[in-house]
Design a protein that fits this description.
cell wall biogenesis/degradation, 4-stranded antiparallel beta sheet, alpha/beta, N-acetylmuramoyl_amidase_3, EC 3.5.1.28, SH3-like_bac-type, Aminopeptidase, N-acetylmuramoyl-L-alanine amidase, SH3 type barrels, elongated
Length: about 280
């Protein structure tokens, strides 16, 4: 009787091993690449996960990688026996990761033009609205960043109403690595305050705020530095984010800059430089 029980137990153990083997084989089949992608960029770095810093392999032009899945703008691939992630927007670009001095090209940057539509924002001394100039500045940065290869997402591209909560939700959903929101200050009494401030909410965003604030130092307006700000767009964003108050719209001097395309271009250039410096580390 005991011998019979032992035989049954052995049989069950063998069957268990077979079942586990079948499940493992099935799992391997479901994660195996279903197609291949040919890399046309000069060189890309395959990362351990989307937006991570750990490099898995360098993939050069002409290489074929096995495609597994897509997640928030990144492709999960296999190459040379390794599995990792590539920024999908760079696969067919002319970006060369081996010569880059920073990782700006690998960033997904959400640019938020504050206010818009029925939400006019603060009022300038001449009766124009904040929403007009936040959009102009956001678009100036968007144009400036085209040469960087970075993936740019705008919360609005026209004078439309965008709910406050939906702005960080968009950034979180699309897998943004950086978030920049443009606004302009307003003092209770006109012509009593001047300058620009870089706000952050999360502690992890403080180095990003400092990098941009430092880069903006050469502006004519006074740099009021970095400060903690409990603003929803940067509070609800899960990536490093800043809110830039780029001058007092109800101050005559500040407004003369805010409404100037040359100032907007200068801000865009300096923010671009700050992004380069921040992503170099």
């Amino acid at each position: 009787m005991r011998l019979r029980i032992v035989q049954i137990l052995i049989l069950l153990a063998v069957l268990g091993v077979v079942v586990i083997g079948i499940k493992h084989h099935s799992s391997q089949q479901t994660t195996a690449p279903t197609k291949t992608i040919t890399i046309s960029a000069p060189a890309l770095i395959m990362r351990q996960s989307p937006n991570s810093s750990k490099a898995v392999a360098t993939v050069k032009s002409g290489a074929k990688v096995g495609y597994i899945a897509k997640k928030k703008g990144w492709d999960k691939v296999t190459y040379d026996g390794k599995t990792g992630w590539l920024p999908s927007w760079l696969i067919s670009s002319d970006y060369n990761a081996t010569t880059a001095t920073n990782r700006l090209a690998e960033q997904t940057i959400v640019i938020d033009a504050g206010h818009g539509g029925v939400d006019s924002g603060a009022l300038a001394t001449n009766g124009t609205y904040e929403k007009k100039y936040t959009l102009q500045m956001a678009q100036a940065l968007q144009a400036q960043l085209k040469a960087s290869h970075a993936r740019i997402i705008m919360t609005r591209s026209s004078d439309t109403t965008v709910a406050l909560a939906s702005r960080p939700k968009l950034a979180n959903r699309r897998g943004a690595s950086l978030f920049i929101s443009f606004h302009f200050d307003s003092s209770p009494e006109a012509n009593t305050a001047t300058g620009f401030t870089t706000y952050y909410y999360h502690k992890a965003s403080k180095p990003f705020a400092k990098a941009l604030s430092k880069s903006l130092n050469s502006l004519t307006l006074d740099n009021r530095g970095t400060a903690y700000g409990n603003f929803q767009v940067i509070r609800d964003s899960t990536m490093p984010g800043v809110l830039l108050e780029m001058g007092y719209i109800n101050d005559y001097t500040d407004y003369s800059y805010i409404s100037s395309s040359s100032y907007q271009q200068q801000v865009a250039q300096l923010v671009y430089k700050g992004l380069e410096n921040y992503t170099a580390n």
